[in-house]
# Entry
Amino acid sequence: MRSDARVHQSLHGLIKRFVCLSLAASSVTTSAQNRVATSLDELGQRVEPGADVTVTDVFGAEFSGFITALTPVELTVFVGGGPRVFGQSDILRIRERRNDSLVNGALSGFAIGAGFVLGATLIASIANYYIDEGRTAKATLAFGGCGAGVGALIDRLHKSRATIYAKPASGSRGADYHFEISPAHQRVLVVWQF
# Structure
C-alpha cells in the first residue's frame, strides 16, 4: 500500500513539473508573437538594417529584399537590382523572414514525448498495474529527449515570415486614394470604406 502511494505521489510530481514547463514555454511563445508595429518609428525599435523582409504595398504588390535604411517616415529596401523607397502611407504590411526558434521546437517535442510516457503511466496507474518509478523517470526523459531532438530539427528546417508591421485600421469612412507613378506604370487605387 505504501509503495502505491509513493508511486502516485512521484507520478503527480512529474505531471506538475511537466505542466509548469509547458505553460512557461507557451507564455514565452505567445508574448513573442504579439508584437506587430503600427508605425515605422515603432518598427525601427524592433528591426535593424539587413533584415530580410517582404513589403506589401497598398496596391497589393509584394517586394522582397533587405532593409538598407529605416527612418520614422521612410523604409528603404534593396529589391532586385537597387533600392526602393516606401513612405509609411505606401505600406500595407511588412513580413520578416526568420528561422523558427529551436527552443520552441525542442520544448514542444519534449512535451509530446514526455507527455506520452506520463499519460501511459497514468493510465497504467489507474488500471492498478505495477509501476517502476526509476523506469518511468528514465522513459520520460528518454522519450522527452527524443521528442526535443525531433522538434528542434523540424524548426531548424522551417523558415517562416512573421508580420512585423501592419498599417493601422482607419476609423474614418469614405474614400482613400493612393497614387503610384513610375516610368514603368501609373496606378491609382481608390479604396471605399463603408
Remarks:
- Strands lie at 52-57, 62-70, 74-79, 82-87, 91-99, 159-166, 174-181, 186-193.
- DSSP finds four helices and eight strands in the chain.
